[in-house]
Queue: 3 jobs
Job 1
Amino acid sequence: MKQKQSKKPVLKHKWANQHPESFKSGDDYEICVLCRAITNVPKSMPVEMRSDYIPGAGQLCHECAVQNAEEERTAMKNGFVYTMSLHDYDD
């Protein structure tokens, strides 16, 4: 019986076709920090090039990023805006 080979995630982001040589074919992929799903973002990709990345938290999958954006819009409609004060950045 032949074993099924797992498929790699399909890279759909605009950077995927522009810089293919910068990512190794055997790259590991990031895990969503909310739902623990495997994302289509290689671990070797610089955070500056990533979409759906939250500094200080980590990578989100696209579905969690959409849900997060919807929750932020709802909170803003209801008059709730979360901001960090400057002392929150000091360590």
Job 2
Amino acid sequence: MREAQQTLSLHGSNTGKEKANIVQCPSHIRYYLRVVPMRLMAQTHLALALLVSPLLGGNPPGRFDVRGKVEISESGQISRFPRFATVAIYATSSPYTATTQTDLSGSFRFKNVPEGNYTLDAFGRRGQARFLFQVNAEAAEKSGTVKLKVPLRIRPGQLVQHLKKRFEVSVNQLSVPPKAYQDYQAAEKRVQKEDFDGAIEKLEHAVSIAPQFAAAWSRLGIISFYQNRLEKAESYFRQGLENSPNTIEFQFRLAQILLAQKRPQEALEWSHAAVKLRPEDAASRSQLGMNFWELRDYENAVLHLNEAKRLDPAHFSGPQLALARIYIARKDIPSAMREVKEFVANHPDSGEAEELQQWLEKAQASQRH
């Protein structure tokens, strides 16, 4: 079985418990609200039907159009389309991102998306969705389209908190001047053209005039991470934390960078801090569990990975695979098989599903002998 990978996406900006002010937001703040990645929360039952359309003539080689529709369903039935939901995609192996809005029917489109694996975030007034998908020629049907229907859980009783976390802006971020946001937008355009050095130049200018600009510090760290400049990424996240100490983004990211540098003991402090700021966040719980796994503290690893599963059984980080690795280390193959089955059931379209299913069949055969 392929070892489970720590795939906690380095894209995102989950703000902490800073005092909010959402009255009379200027246009550059509204842009910030639209592009800052969305959190894993929801109220009704949300389903996303994603259509990934490959090149038929207009796109450069190795790039594709991504089309889809965001649908709201209640009690398993499609009831209506959300108006003007935000949809963002993040590459899992590069800094590439793109953000758009749905139309009145819930439809959206991304053009010229590079081939690769992506995380998609959708955020509307009635809920949020997040999942992994692939953009490549192999994913296409004969018609030239890949169709992925992903019904997601919506936790009841969370609408007020969902809307609050979507629309509130910290006083700190309201003080960011328009010029810094212009630099941020220019940097994102350069990222989409794979001009990462140019993007860094724009972002560094943004934080030079607005050190409190959390999203810009985060983007600097993310780009540096994918350039394998881990020490530089760590520096950016630490500077972001210094200027926005109550932002979960930097604690979460700093732990990731330290884990990537094989420094799990140092990472543990920040993994704990992220969970303390938001104990109901599945990503933070999953990362804390993986942090304990790296320290070979299997008891605490199982505790937090199971909590991540409780919060979101289909979470993109795949806590089931981390649990399976622990059970294999303990020679508890039946428990490992149970976790792998659960992962495959929750991620039937993942790139690992077929290989994991083959492992399951071999494991089941060995258990019979």
Job 3
Amino acid sequence: MPAPTATSIIEIKNWRAEYFGNADVAAGPVVIRDDSAVDFNWGSGVPMPGLPADNFSVRWSRSLAFDEGLYRLHILMDDGARLWLDDQLVIDSWKDGSLREVTADRQLAGGNHSLRLEYYERSGDAAIRLWWERIATNSYPDWKGEYWSNGSFAGSPVLVRNDSVVNFFWYSQPPAPGVAADNFSARWSRQVNFDSGLYRFYAEADDGIRLYIDGYPIINEWHGSNNSVYTADVTVSGSRQVVVEYYEHSGDAYVRVRWERVTLQPTAQPTRTPTQTPTLTQTPTIAPSSTLIAASTATPTQTPTSTPTGTLTPTLSPTASSTSTGTATPTVTPTGTSTLIPTDTPTDTPTVTPTLTLTPTDTPTVTPTLTLTPTDTPTVTPTATITPTGTPTITFPLTNVRLNELLPVTGTIYLDEWIELYNTGVVSTSLTGWSLDNGPLSGNLPYVITSTVDISPGGFILLNRQETGLTIADAGGQLRLLQPDSTVVDVVTFGPLPPDTSYSRDDTSLWRSDWPPSPGGPNTAPTPTATPTTGP
């Protein structure tokens, strides 16, 4: 019996069906006909007389009107099939296999859309079915998980499902049947409503991972790794799309994503603890066995008592502590007679002020002179260690311009918020086209420097809110400096600060909230206030 030939003229009202006598959809169709639906279970039989029971293929195509919405497309197949939607491959399972179902979700605009389905039967039973339904956008109440059996998201996912969390340790096993154990990739997406604030995002992976918020990559670690942990601090509010991309190359497979809200406290102000002011009292006792001249160079000490017997050589025990030394050399004239003549009854005990440690000498006449080392400056002991806040893991380009100081909350001294930039280099840098913003998800418009502005070597530029229109959040947040190509040059995350308090950078790039504001000038540590030493 001769094989049937394709009909050249046929009215197609439903699916245009082209049947081929090979498994490759090649060499021209044997039969072309109108199929009302793609829903066949031929078992081990032939699809029609003149075609083989094995090693045949079919192509169905048509255009259909869809309402706008999200649709889930299903294919039930034995052996292989692939589906195009508007000439885009959305399902690709072109391989031998037993009866199985593969799905894909696609958002469609209202109007006509073209569909093309190709199918082949290798051997054994033959079955093919195509259908779809419109689904609600919340059909994935948690994470929409899409899985590919390649490491680059090529083609359509082999599996789409709802995942309650992104927290998997598959070891050396595949994520699910039909997905490769190695060299696979996955994408999770969901809409998350954030209360306004600063959040710390954690991404853990073996191997590569990327984390996006509204399409902006806050973590990008697309490389092989061994259970590495990455973090990023981001100010965010409102409903945001969060997307996680992951790939596994070989070995164990692990991925986890989480976040938490960060509450930054103001940096503690150091408390100055002055050195104790010693009470200096010395009472030399004069023995009757010698003549003693009260003359010496003295250093104030804490309450030493010297009792000379014979020739007296008291021990000098200075205890004054200071960070700077002032030297005063007054001339002291003792009260009464310089020469003390002992009798059988010791003389009245004199009190020497300021305190002297007496070194007796045999010289009969000495001009009494002392060198006084006062405690001019208290020792400043901070009660808190200032710890810089965390910043996102971002590799910044090489540049000499940086964020140097900011003042978010005005008060009685500063009537406007301000931001200070500093050029640490030895050449001038043009800032034309550079911009400042409150982070990628703040919702605030950035400030772009549109005028011709150069910052000289070692120079400062002060930008007031009245000029920039950029508000620095009183409750804390983020500030970024960007080049004209939107490359992030510098970023600082800060907490709430009191009025008239700046957040400034020291020479080691540590951010401080305990240094005095210095708009337009170098940042300097506070000068300790000396506590004067008072006598009795």
